[in-house]
């Protein structure tokens, strides 16, 4: 498990005075401000965040040290990370996406199915993108209790009971 969790991303400049467009990945989007200062993935940059008003697909925000539109535009696409110890602890049946990526996926008989490449959400529920040597393409496994009855972070694996024909 990594010590940094991605909590947001900069979508570009907002206005001409150094404000940014901020996308929050937090369950309660406004909570991103509670985890400030935020850093880049490699930890080379750290930013104190001041949340502005809600805008389409996120918030306007200010980062300490960013004063111009050009500086804000240069940060477009930058992912912002919080330290794990800043974040709330999760109930037993909830996981941070970063903890699921890279886990081995096995079926209920223990046969390997692949490895989690990413976690996606297209509105209905989370999907685990699984890749592996025996797969022509990645497979999107529904991240539901029926399809994924066991997540064992300690052992680094997920036990899946995929719908019929999904991994063929």
Attribute tags:
single chain; 168 residues; mainly beta; Elongation Factor Tu (Ef-tu), domain 3; SH3 type barrels; 2 helices; 40% strand
Give a short synopsis of this structure.
Helix content is 6%, strand content 40%. With 168 residues, it is mainly β.
Strand composition percent: 35-45%
CATH superfamily of the largest domain: RimM
Rounded mean pLDDT is: 91
Helical amount: under 10%
Label the structural class.
mainly beta
Reading off the top of the CATH hierarchy, the class of the largest domain is best stated as: Mainly Beta
Order of helices and strands: EEEEEEHEHEEEEEE
Named CATH topology of the largest domain? Elongation Factor Tu (Ef-tu), domain 3
**CATH architectural type of the largest domain:** Beta Barrel
Count of strand segments: 13
Low-pLDDT stretches are none
Distance between termini? 30 Å
Radius of gyration based on Cα positions: 19 Å
**Count of alpha and pi helical runs:** 2
Could you say how many structural domains there are in total? 2
Shape: elongated
């Amino acid at each position: 498990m990594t010590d940094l969790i991605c909590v947001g991303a900069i979508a570009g400049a907002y206005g001409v005075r150094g404000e940014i467009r901020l996308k929050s990945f937090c369950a309660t989007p406004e909570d991103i401000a509670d985890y400030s200062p935020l850093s880049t993935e490699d930890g080379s940059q750290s930013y104190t965040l001041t949340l502005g008003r809600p805008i389409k697909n996120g918030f306007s925000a200010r980062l300490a040290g960013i004063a111009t539109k050009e500086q804000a535009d240069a940060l477009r696409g930058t992912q912002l990370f919080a330290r794990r110890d800043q974040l709330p602890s999760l109930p037993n049946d909830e996981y941070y996406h970063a903890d699921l990526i890279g886990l081995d996926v096995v079926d209920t008989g223990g046969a390997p199915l692949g490895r989690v490449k990413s976690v996606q959400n297209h509105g209905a529920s989370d999907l685990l993108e699984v890749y592996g040597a025996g797969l022509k393409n990645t497979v999107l496994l529904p991240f539901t209790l029926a399809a994924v009855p066991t997540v064992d972070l300690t052992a680094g694996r997920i036990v899946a009971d995929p719908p019929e024909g999904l991994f063929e």
